[in-house]
Amino acid sequence: MIGADFSAFRCFARPERAGAEGLFDLVSQGYANTVLSRVLEGDLPTDIAQALGDWMGGLRPLALTWFASVAKMGRAVFEESQIKDELLGRLLLDLAPELGDFEYRFRCKSGLPIVRDGCLYHPSESISIASRVGETSVIGLGEGVALAQVGAITVVETRQSVESLCGDGVPALPLDPECSGNFGWAAEISEGLRQMARIDPAYDIWVRRVLKTLVVTERLPHRTCSGSWLDTSATVYMSQPGAPLDVGEVLIHECAHQHFHLASRVAPMKAPGESGRYFSPPVGRERPLDMILIAYHAFANVLTYYEKAFDMSLGDTVSRNRYASFREQVAALESHLLGNPGLSDLGRTIFEELYNARQHAGAMG
């Protein structure tokens, strides 16, 4: 039996293959349209149904569709079989600049803030959105807190614990507005991103393609902590870095997850019927095969980044120790994936592209 050809998706495996921008746009638009088609099955006001239907007819860039609340809306549609007013309102806020004429009003019942246009808002009243001839007005957001910008990345700084961010944000970032703002921490992030771009410009593209909002918590002793949410795309959280090299490590790792999640919108990473569980050293417990692959995908890219940094005489004892630990973890993850028939055609494409590239780099080195 001949499997599907997912060779074009090698660009989701590693940044050296990441030049096919049109494919990223197409995948993101396709997923957005799948979600919105289900939204349109609901009982929507005529003007909103018309605006969303018209929007689906064009090809928008990844910078709009992946950055919007489409992923979170997707889970509400497919798992809960309903459209919540607030979820739809947040989606319309994100897409409004590209939508036709409509009006919508909703309340933020979740109590969670809204990050919009470089500001953090904590609305207490109803929010009204009106779009007319490409111009959007929003009433009810209240007074926002200006946030730091690092290029196109909005940096939200918060004094709440990193542990408080580890849960899934429903339906948005689990931020405490009283603890969040602009405390001057973004300079370290900017320095780390500049260093990452010098080490490998391809990883700069890799990160900036899928990252719009970075939540930074206070520094932790002797470690960094980071994560992201499957259903809140283009968003990552991390504790303050201990060194500039840490920024590249964290963002490459987390943005690898963003690329993986985006590819997963096309097809599953596991073959039908695959139900095995395999020990994953990074988390210290058994996990399904697709979770083994997502860990391998992230850590293998981080290894490549560190190797290029070391070639430039960057790094210290701490970073070299972390690299050694990651190498052991990657070897263990690799052992579960090599020749495993439980990988789907897409999963195998992602794994083999990254595995073969690392084998080639090792032979050349």
Distance between the termini: 38 Å
Q: Mean of the pLDDT scores?
A: 89
Structural class, by secondary structure, is alpha+beta
Helix-strand topology string: HHHHHEEEEEEEEEHHEEEHEEHHH
Provide the β-strand percentage band.
15-25%
Q: Could you tell me the number of beta strands?
A: 14
Low-confidence segments, ≥5 residues, pLDDT <50?
none
How would the global form be characterised? globular
Number of helices: 11
Oligomeric organization of the protein chains: single chain
Helical content stands at 40-55%
Rg over alpha carbons = 21 Å
Biggest sheet record? 6 strands, mixed
Question: What is the topology?
Answer:
Elements: H1 21-39, H2 46-55, H3 62-65, H4 70-80, H5 85-95, E1 102-106, E2 114-116, E3 119-121, E4 127-132, E5 135-139, E6 145-146, E7 148-150, E8 153-158, E9 180-181, H6 186-199, H7 201-210, E10 213-217, E11 226-229, E12 232-239, H8 244-264, E13 277-280, E14 285-288, H9 289-311, H10 317-337, H11 345-364
Parallel strand pairs: 8-10, 10-12
Antiparallel strand pairs: 1-4, 2-3, 3-6, 4-5, 7-8, 8-9, 11-12, 13-14
Helix pairs in contact: 1-4, 6-7, 6-8, 7-8, 8-9, 9-10, 9-11
The gist of it:
The protein is an alpha+beta fold.
Structural overview:
By secondary structure, this protein is of the alpha+beta class. Helix content is 45%, strand content 16%. The chain has helices at residues 21-39, 46-55, 62-65, 70-80, 85-95, 186-199, 201-210, 244-264, 289-311, 317-337, 345-364, and strands spanning 102-106, 114-116, 119-121, 127-132, 135-139, 145-146, 148-150, 153-158, 180-181, 213-217, 226-229, 232-239, 277-280, 285-288. Strands 7, 8, 9, 10, 11 and 12 form a six-stranded mixed sheet that branches. A three-stranded antiparallel sheet has the order 1-4-5. A three-stranded antiparallel sheet has the order 2-3-6, with no helix packed on it. Strand 7 and strand 8 (153-158) form a beta hairpin. Helix 8 (244-264) packs antiparallel against helix 9 and helix 9 runs parallel beside helix 11. The longest helix has 23 residues, at 289-311. The two termini are 38 Å apart.
